[in-house]
TrEMBL record:
Its main location: membrane. It holds the Pfam family MFS_1. Keywords: Membrane, Transmembrane, Transmembrane helix, Transport. It comes from Mucor velutinosus. This is AAA ATPase midasin.
Amino acid sequence: MEREQVQYTEHVNEKRQQLDDGYAESDNHNSKNNSTVLIKSPEEIAFLRKLNWTLLPLIFLIIFIQFCDKSALTVAAVLGIIEDTGMSGSQYSWLGSIFYLGYLVCQTQLLTKSVLFYFEYSIQVPNNYLIQRLPIGRYLGCVLVIWGIVMGATGACNTFGQLLATRFLLGLFEGVTYPCIYILLNTLYRKSEQSRCWGFVHVGTGMGTILGVVIAYGLAHLDGVKGLRGWRWGYIVFGIATVVVGFLTFFFLVDDTHHRLLRLTEKEKEIVQERSKDNCVVRNKEIKREQMWEAAKEPRLWILFVVFLLNSLQNGGLITFSALLVQGLGFSSLNSIILQIPNGAAAAFFAMVSVLLAHKLQRNTFTAIGTTIISLLGCIFLAVIPGTPKLVGLYLSWAMTGTSSLILTLVSNNVSGYTKKVFYNAVLIVGQTFGNFIGPLIMVEDQAPTYWGGK
């Protein structure tokens, strides 16, 4: 490649790595890190632009609709779902947690399959089996359609038991989303590109909250139309939207470097082959037991597991109780909904800024520590500042989204081997899900409306 052709450079860490086994970080495959400059040709820049515009908008839409669905419960809480179904405060907490129990079941399927395979059992656990053997676009699209149907059915629930069942199923089906997206980004992008991709994904979570709240505010004015409460309309409309996104995903999600929608030229096929050597992941259908065992012996896996768990405690509590916390400050139901918009804006802001800052400084870990400190300060403000200024603490606490983005990037950049990355991903999401499961349960009914113990 001639220097005169250079239009773009990136600093990356280059390692000698083996694509087949993914052992670049093993004790048996020591390598020396060298800081070098990755030079991208004009052809690769054009290919990357094509990939971004073909893949990322649909991933953004999937994450967006997921967080619209997640925000539906906290909005429903101030629109009468508790009174209409005769729930107690503790039962409402369980509605927040049971979602993540379903989510956890989905993730432990992935993890359990890996462990069982290591011990040479023949049990096939569905999620891991399907992720590795089906086109991700087809699989995720079908799951989205089913999840949308369950979402719509939630609007017809009249008892706590019915809501509990639908919330569990929502968690079970939504749990497929992140493992699929994780694998896509890790197989389609270079290491140095993945932090920005994850930042984009987490901006989608914030935008999902913002637009979901705006839509929910409008649907709240349908209260009484056709004899249905506003919260029921919310679930029905979001359910239909999720089904539509499912069909779009089924037909248009780029899930392979040679996908027909990319329309690769011969030169671009060579570029794709070269790029796969950088991320050290080649998607395959074989589960390698030795990579499972190698990952399980690494202390960093379990350190990241604990970090993800603790970072997700407040996320679970805030997603479920945010509107009730705001209402407890004296705001009306509709105003409590509108004041959820800064939650989404803060989540998107911290995700974007943390990724840009980490990329500029080349220090993911230090940047993650910074966002964690900001989030901790937000929780402290929530607990000690009286009255309406508590909202500042609420919005600062969403800095945790930046931490999540950067942790996932650390794994993307430092773990090689397809099976090993799948295993890491499963363990970390189990930790994240445990945190989200516990979060709503520490918001005790006796402490309403401030829930000071959960803060």
